[in-house]
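Anyone able to model this chain together with LQZAQKY5?
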Amino acid sequence: MTFLHDVLKPGCSCDAPEHPGKLISIDEALHRIGALCHPIAEVERLSLSQAHGRVLALPVVNDTPAPAFDNSAMDGYAVDARAFVGDGPWILQVSDRIPAGSGGQAALQPGTAARIFTGAPVPAGATAVVMQEQVRNAGALVRIDRRPSDGQNIRRIGSDMQAGEVVLTAGTILGPREIAAAAAAGAAEVTVRRRLRVALLVTGDEVRQAGTGRATAQIWDVNTPMLGAAIASPAMELVAAEPAADDRLRLRRQLADLCSRADLVVTTGGVSVGEEDHVKQALADLGGELALSGVAIKPGKPVSLGSVGSVTWLGLPGNPLAAFVTWQLFGETVVQHLTGQTRLRNQRRHVVTAFPIKRKPGRCEFRPANRIGFDALGRELVGFDGTTNSARVGNLPAADGLILLPADADDLPEGALVEFMPFFET
Ligand SMILES: Nc1nc2c(c(=O)[nH]1)N[C@H]1C(S)=C(S)[C@@H](COP(=O)(O)OP(=O)(O)OC[C@H]3O[C@@H](n4cnc5c(N)ncnc54)[C@H](O)[C@@H]3O)O[C@H]1N2
Ligand code: MOO
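re: yes, here you go
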C-alpha cells in the first residue's frame, strides 16, 4: 500500500474547510523542497580534525596507495614458502627483526625467517607471515609445521585504497566513518561548505522562556530549546534565536533583519489560519514567495516553505510535536539540500505494529514510536502511545522514531505493516 500520494479529499474534520484541495502530499512537499533549496556556494578549507559533521564541497582523492607498502597483519615470522621443500616441518634460522615503522628494510635472506611485528613492512622475497602461535621457537631457530599459503597474513600495498581513487565524493557529510577513510588517505585538510546560517523566530505572545515568570494561560517555550538543539549540528550555525510578537509590522522588521543574517529562517507558529497568524503576511510584505503552504500530514498540516530573495524560509507549526515532526521530515531535508548533501538520508523501513490503531483517515500521520523487538516472523515490532496529540512532547524521549500511518487508513490491526523513520540524531 502506498500512502505518499495527493490527498484530494481530506477526510479529517480539521483538514477541509480552510484549505480545500490545497494540501499537498508529503512526496510533493519533499519535491518542492528539492526544487527550491540549492547548496550555499561558499566553501572553506579545514583540517580533518575540525571537519566532523561538515559537508564536503570537493572530493577527497587518495594520492598514494593505502596501505603504502606490503605489511604484516600479525606478529610472527616472514618466510619465503616457495623455498620450502617437501611436507615439513621446516626449521629456519631467524635472520632479521622488523618492528613496525622500520624503514629501509633489507630483503629476506634466502632460506631464513625474519621476526616481524604487526604493521611492519614485509621484506622483499617473503611470500607469507606465519603467526607466532603457529611456530615453535628455539633460540635463533623456528620450526614451522604447516606450509603457509601464498600471501598469508600480508596486507598488500593498495589493498585498502588505490592511488587516485576517489575516497569521498563532494556532498558527503563527514561522520566518523568518512573521517576514517579520509585519514587513511592521508588527507590533512578538506574543502567543505561553510556552515549554514540558521535563524530561529518563535512566535506566540503566550510563550515564555523557562526561568522567567509565567502567568495563567502562558506556556513554556518548547520550540526554541528543541529546535536550537536540532540546529546545533556542526554543519549549521544558529545566528539568532528570537521570540516574536504576534504583530505583523514588528514581525516584518524582525524577519527582514534575520533574512539579512541567515541563509535559512525557521519560524514556529503563526502559520495557520487565525487572525493572530501573521508570519506569511509579513513575508509577503518583504516580497517573499511561497513554495508550499499546507501538507496532508498530521501533525504539522500548516507547515510552509518559501523564500525571500536568496533566503529560505521554513514555517513550522507552533504545536511542539508538530514542529518536531515537520523539522525531522522537512527541516532536515531543507538543511540537506542547502548544505549540498548528495546522499539524502532517507532511512524509512517497514515495521509491524504491536497494537491495533484507530484513527481518522485524511492525512498521513506520524506518531512517535519505539522498537520493541521482533515478531515470530522476524519482523521488527513497534509500539506507540495511543494518546498522542500535536502539542504533546512528554512521550518523545521514550520514542526512537516515527511511524507513518497511511492517509487513507482508519483502523489498522495489530501486525499491520507500516513505515518507520528513525529520528535524525546529531
Ligand atoms: N481554525 C483552525 N485552527 C487551527 C487549524 C485549522 O486548520 N483551523 N489548524 C490547527 C493545527 S493542525 C495546528 S498544527 C495549529 C498550528 O497553528 P500555528 O502554526 O499557527 O501555531 P500557533 O497557533 O501559533 O500555535 C499553536 C499551538 O502551539 C503552541 N505553541 C506555539 N509556540 C510554542 C512554543 N514555542 N512552545 C510551546 N508551545 C507553543 C501555542 O500556544 C498553540 O497552543 O493550528 C491549529 N488551529
Ligand atoms: O496538524 Mo496540527 O499539526 O494537528 O497539530
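Residues 298-301, 317, 319, 322, 390 surround molybdate ion (ligand 2) (CB under 6 Å).
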